[in-house]
């Protein structure tokens, strides 16, 4: 079974690891599988270990062997795993597996556990050991445990790494260059976190990274594992968190990758209808298979632990929850239901294992249906995520803002409906990459009217998102009102900032982010009904919505007035809880943000006239197409707490 020279300790440890791997309980499987450095009989090299249960034979071929035939690997009993030690193998050398598949066909395959790959269009795996980084972000990691994110500001800047900025010759920025420019930019703009679209190895730019071939490797077109570790550390030292999109539902079907690795359904389902993902042209992971569970949960923990990530945004959760989510034939459960029980059980197991080790990380679900309890604990029957993208809020809000303001009063329920369910889950409010591609137009271009009204609408929708309960996510380019929709092969339109209106909008987003981060009322009770009090949600005729956002302390509150049509309202009355003086915290129509108001309305004094269910009221001018946020300046009767 093993070549001569193996120590008994190595043999026993390998068998122990593979026993857990085959039971779906080995969550550090990357420490055993793939290529790992080893010393044997005084010779240094690497051990190569791969799961291919139905292969007739497997060899590893590379710069350290005869490429044509390679070095034969030994099958470890009935584990389905093949292994061999290659003395002289060194970091940076290339290799592949020569797999004689179940029917005798020979295929050259990548290592599913490879930590690095050749730069495309080449596809060989690269010999690499795990970096032994000495991290310097201990304070950030300690604070992450101490201050729970539920009661903290979370304002995410979503980034596609290779199209954020390009050099003049069209080449994109390297990770070290992004470290020098992206991190200071995000900090200056006031975001709390960066979220990257998938960074794992993938062959097609147009997939944006969502069709991965190498799950344990940073894409070679971006840089090295070591560089990305340094990037994350630099983010943490700048008090910025890092999240990465992760795709455990489906994988790239290219022949050199994991697809039918040993000639039989291995990583994918046996049933072709369940294996084939027709919508995305990929293959679905068999989420009920123990070895696949070991692979995927190990991968989630690999990215969290090896890169000190602050969270994963789990893509396409709906496709894992339903048997009929895809296009094409499907077979219901014996009771006629359409739930993918394997997928549900896997998701619950994934979240349980991640939170057992790291209770302070973010596990965010991109889930587009009405599945209940997505962010509830597994022991309560939930899926176990701690956040979910609020796709319903996003779709309703965009539909409302894209229509002519003349008709908005007839569709005001699109704005108010979210208030009926906003505490059912822990929500993130996303304006993501998906909303600014494929002819959907950029966020600025979605707004109706001339250029001035488009920016007024964009300021209003952005401010409304910021004052609505829930954490926030913003795709790159929207912060300065880019006109063209996102193009994966081009950098953002940074030259737009030379236009006064784009520059003003950038300054507005910077101010908005600052207001959000500094006002406890906008995030401290995000997931509790105590964090909001509706004043008037029935003013459909004027298309005005008013409410109070609250923090834990009675004095931590703001009054929010949203005017969703381009009509100024004079002498507008709003109810407030305490007598005294109020002032504007935010007015989206000030000239420095691109509006027409040269100054704010100064100090606003209350009258003892009940309104909106409040004991006092005040009057102000509500600018056309705007959001005004008021805060107490000097008020009386506030309980001490």
Describe this structure in words.
It contains 13 helices and 30 strands. The chain has 641 residues and is of the alpha/beta class. The protein folds into three domains: 8-126, Immunoglobulins (Immunoglobulin-like); 154-520, Glycosidases (TIM Barrel), CATH 3.20.20; 529-636, Golgi alpha-mannosidase II (Immunoglobulin-like, Sandwich). The strands form seven sheets. Strands 10-11-14-18-19-20-21-22 form an eight-stranded parallel barrel. Strand 5 and strand 6 form a beta hairpin. Helix 3 runs parallel beside helix 4 (225-237). The model has no long low-confidence stretch (mean pLDDT 96).
Topology:
Layout: H1 8-22, E1 34-40, E2 43-51, E3 57-62, E4 71-72, E5 74-75, E6 81-87, E7 94-100, E8 106-109, E9 125-126, H2 138-146, E10 155-159, H3 175-189, E11 193-196, E12 200-201, E13 214-218, H4 225-237, E14 241-246, E15 250-251, H5 272-275, E16 276-277, E17 282-284, H6 290-306, E18 311-314, H7 317-321, H8 341-357, E19 362-365, E20 387-389, H9 391-402, H10 413-416, E21 427-431, H11 443-446, H12 451-467, E22 471-475, H13 500-518, E23 532-539, E24 544-550, E25 557-563, E26 569-576, E27 579-587, E28 604-605, E29 616-622, E30 626-636
Parallel strand pairs: 10-11, 10-22, 11-14, 14-18, 18-19, 19-20, 20-21, 21-22
Antiparallel strand pairs: 1-2, 2-6, 3-4, 3-7, 5-6, 7-8, 7-9, 12-13, 15-17, 16-17, 23-24, 24-25, 25-30, 26-29, 27-28, 27-30
Helix pairs in contact: 3-4, 6-8, 12-13
């Amino acid at each position: 079974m093993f070549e001569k020279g193996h120590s008994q300790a190595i043999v026993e440890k390998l068998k122990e690891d593979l026993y857990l791997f085959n039971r779906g309980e080995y969550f550090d499987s990357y420490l055993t599988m793939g290529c790992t450095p080893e010393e044997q009989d005084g010779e240094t090299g690497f051990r190569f270990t791969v799961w291919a249960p139905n292969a007739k034979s497997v060899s590893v071929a590379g710069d350290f062997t005869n490429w044509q035939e390679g070095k034969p690997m030994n099958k470890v009993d009935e584990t389905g795993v093949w292994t061999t030690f290659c003395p002289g193998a060194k970091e940076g050398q290339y290799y592949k597996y020569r797999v004689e598949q179940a029917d005798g066909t020979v295929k050259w395959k990548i290592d599913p556990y490879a930590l690095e790959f050749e730069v495309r269009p080449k596809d060989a795996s690269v010999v690499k050991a795990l970096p032994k980084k000495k991290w310097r972000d201990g304070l950030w990691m300690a604070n992450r445990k101490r201050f729970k994110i539920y009661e903290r500001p979370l304002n995410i800047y979503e980034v596609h790494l290779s199209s954020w900025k390009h050099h003049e010759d069209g080449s994109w920025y390297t990770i070290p260059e992004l470290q020098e420019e992206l991190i200071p930019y995000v900090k200056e703009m006031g975001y709390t976190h960066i979220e990257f679209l998938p960074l794992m190895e993938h062959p097609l730019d147009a997939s944006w990274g969502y069709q991965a071939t190498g799950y344990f490797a940073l894409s070679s077109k971006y840089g090295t594992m070591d560089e990305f570790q340094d990037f994350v550390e630099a983010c943490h030292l700048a008090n910025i968190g890092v999240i990465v999109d992760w795709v455990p539902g489906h994988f790239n079907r290219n022949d050199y990758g994991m697809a039918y690795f040993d000639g039989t359904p291995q990583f994918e389902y046996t049933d072709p209808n369940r294996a084939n993902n027709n919508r995305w042209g990929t293959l679905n992971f068999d989420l009920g298979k123990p070895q696949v569970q070991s692979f995927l949960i190990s991968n989630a923990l690999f990215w969290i632990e090896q890169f000190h990530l602050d969270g994963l945004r789990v893509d396409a959760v709906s496709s894992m929850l339903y048997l009929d989510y895809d296009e094409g034939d499907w077979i219901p459960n014996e009771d006629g239901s359409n739930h993918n029980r394997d997928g549900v059980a896997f998701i619950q197991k994934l979240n349980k294992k991640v939170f057992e080790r790291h209770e302070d990380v973010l596990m965010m679900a991109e889930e587009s249906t009405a599945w209940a309890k997505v962010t509830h604990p597994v022991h309560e029957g939930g899926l176990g995520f701690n956040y979910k993208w609020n796709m319903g809020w996003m779709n309703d809000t965009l539909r409302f803002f894209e229509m002519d303001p003349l008709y908005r009063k007839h569709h005001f329920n699109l704005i108010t409906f979210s208030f009926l369910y906003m505490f059912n889950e822990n929500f993130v409010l996303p304006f993501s990459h998906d909303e600014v591609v494929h002819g959907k137009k950029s966020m600025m271009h979605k707004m109706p009217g001339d250029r001035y009204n488009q920016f007024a609408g964009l300021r209003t929708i952005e401010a409304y998102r910021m004052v609505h309960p829930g954490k926030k996510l913003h795709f790159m380019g929207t912060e300065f009102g880019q006109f063209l929709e996102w193009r994966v092969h081009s950098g953002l339109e940074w030259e737009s900032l030379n236009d006064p209106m784009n520059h003003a909008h950038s300054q507005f987003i910077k101010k908005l982010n600052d207001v959000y981060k500094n006002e406890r009322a906008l995030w401290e009770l995000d997931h509790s009904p105590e964090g909001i009090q509706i004043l008037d949600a029935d003013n459909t005729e004027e298309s005005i919505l008013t409410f109070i956002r609250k923090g834990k302390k009675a004095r931590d509150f703001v009054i929010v007035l949203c005017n969703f049509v381009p009509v100024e309202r004079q002498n507008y009355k709003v109810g407030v809880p305490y007598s005294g003086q109020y002032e504007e915290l935010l007015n989206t129509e000030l000239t420095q943000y691109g509006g027409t108001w040269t100054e704010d309305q100064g100090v606003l004094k209350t009258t003892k006239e009940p309104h909106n269910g409040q004991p006092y009221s005040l009057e102000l001018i509500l600018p056309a197409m705007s959001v005004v946020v008021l805060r107490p300046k000097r008020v009386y009767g506030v309980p001490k707490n």
